[in-house]
């Protein structure tokens, strides 16, 4: 990859902040090194109480800021930001503010998509701070796997359904097609994103990325894991203090996705079993 190709001008990077200003400085410092102009970076703030700090940081780094009057959730905030982008933008990188980019990460994601018009989304190799792989490229979960994982994950951690649910391709050293890419960091072709209506805002948090990958796949597009692109994931501040409450939100989103994917009266008993299993798992977690 030539040096001139490392700072693409046809991509925007959108991050969503909800009281995440403590992580924005490092994120923005790395993000501006990945694109041609700092104004290609957009912070969408979900009506945070730390907006003054966020304003100061975005001004300091020369990036754009969109302030929402209410918390629209992750997908809703990304959609709002995407709607403001200039028509010269062909790709959108969606990233959590608790990430640090390698300088050529965005260029690798864009180049992989540009090389194949059938690719709608690309995702990087996401690393934890200890150097281990963060699971970010997986298969679309099935109802069977969802029920098995919900029923047995707490009492039989190595059960086959949980292993299937957690399995991903992030140990691969080559590009690979997957069912979905983590919304912690992914690059999506703007035309494809718009063709499916962006993120489904019915997911306030969690599973909006699974749903996006599934809907893109149904249209015949490929979601591609691109290990040459690397980012480091630090961990969310917005949800860390409320992890048990967030588990309920996660499970509600998981149920919504699988119920949408598997409709019909004849599957109602299995959906009921899934709901029961997810509810029981939340109760067990709260007792710990």
The outline comes out as: globular
- Assign the structural class, choosing from mainly alpha, mainly beta, alpha/beta, alpha+beta, or little secondary structure: alpha/beta
CATH superfamily grouping of one domain: Spore Coat Polysaccharide Biosynthesis Protein SpsA, Chain A
Mean pLDDT: 93
CATH class of one domain: Alpha Beta
Radius of gyration: 19 Å
Major beta-sheet overview: 9 strands, mixed
Count up the helices. 11
Percent in helix: 40-55%
Helix and strand sequence: EHEHEHEEHEEHHEEEHHEHHH
CATH architecture group name of one domain: Alpha-Beta Complex
Termini separation comes to: 50 Å
Q: Percent of residues in beta strands?
A: 15-25%
Low-confidence stretches: none
Output the CATH topology of one domain.
Answer: Spore Coat Polysaccharide Biosynthesis Protein SpsA, Chain A
Q: Tell me the total number of β-strands.
A: 11
For this entry, give a set of tags.
two-stranded antiparallel ribbon, 11 helices, Spore Coat Polysaccharide Biosynthesis Protein SpsA, Chain A, EC 2.4.1.289, 41% helix, globular, 288 residues, alpha/beta
What does this entry look like structurally?
This protein has helices spanning 21-31, 51-61, 73-82, 105-114, 143-152, 160-166, 190-195, 208-218, 237-240, 243-261, 268-287, and strands at residues 11-17, 41-45, 64-67, 91-95, 99-101, 119-128, 137-138, 176-178, 180-181, 185-189, 222-233. The strands form 2 sheets. Strands 1, 2, 3, 4, 5, 6, 8, 10 and 11 form a 9-stranded mixed β-sheet that branches. It has a two-stranded antiparallel ribbon with strand order 7-9. Helix 10 packs antiparallel against helix 11. The protein is globular and about 50 Å long. Helix 1 links the parallel strand 1 and strand 2. The protein has a domain at 8-135 and 170-235: Spore Coat Polysaccharide Biosynthesis Protein SpsA, Chain A, CATH 3.90.550.10. It is built from 11 helices and 11 strands. The protein has 288 residues and is α/β, with parallel strands linked by helices.
């Amino acid at each position: 990859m030539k040096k001139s190709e490392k700072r693409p001008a046809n991509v925007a990077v959108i991050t969503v902040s909800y009281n995440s200003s403590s992580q924005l400085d490092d994120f923005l410092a790395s993000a501006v090194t990945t694109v041609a102009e700092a104004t290609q970076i957009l912070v969408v703030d979900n009506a945070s109480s730390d907006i003054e700090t966020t304003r100061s940081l975005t001004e300091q780094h020369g990036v754009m800021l969109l302030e929402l009057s209410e918390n629209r959730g992750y997908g809703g905030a990304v959609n709002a930001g995407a709607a403001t982008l200039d028509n010269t933008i062909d790709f959108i990188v969606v990233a959590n503010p608790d990430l640090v980019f390698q300088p050529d990460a965005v260029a690798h994601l864009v180049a992989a998509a540009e090389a194949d018009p059938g690719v709608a989304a690309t995702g990087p190799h996401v690393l934890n701070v200890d150097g281990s792989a963060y699971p970010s490229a997986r298969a679309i979960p099935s109802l069977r796997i969802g029920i098995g994982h919900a029923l047995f994950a707490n009492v039989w951690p190595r059960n086959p359904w949980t292993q299937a649910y957690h399995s991903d391709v992030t140990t691969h050293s080559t590009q690979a097609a997957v069912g979905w890419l983590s919304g912690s960091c992914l690059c999506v072709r703007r035309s494809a994103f718009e063709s499916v209506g962006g993120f489904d805002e019915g997911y306030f948090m969690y599973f909006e990325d699974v749903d996006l990958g599934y809907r893109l796949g149904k249209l015949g597009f490929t979601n591609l894991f691109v290990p040459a692109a690397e980012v480091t994931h630090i961990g969310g501040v917005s949800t860390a203090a409320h992890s048990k409450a967030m588990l309920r939100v996660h499970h509600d989103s998981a149920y919504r996705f699988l119920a949408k994917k598997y409709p019909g009266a004849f599957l109602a008993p299995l959906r009921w079993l899934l709901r029961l299993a997810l509810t029981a798992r939340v109760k067990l977690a709260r007792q710990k």
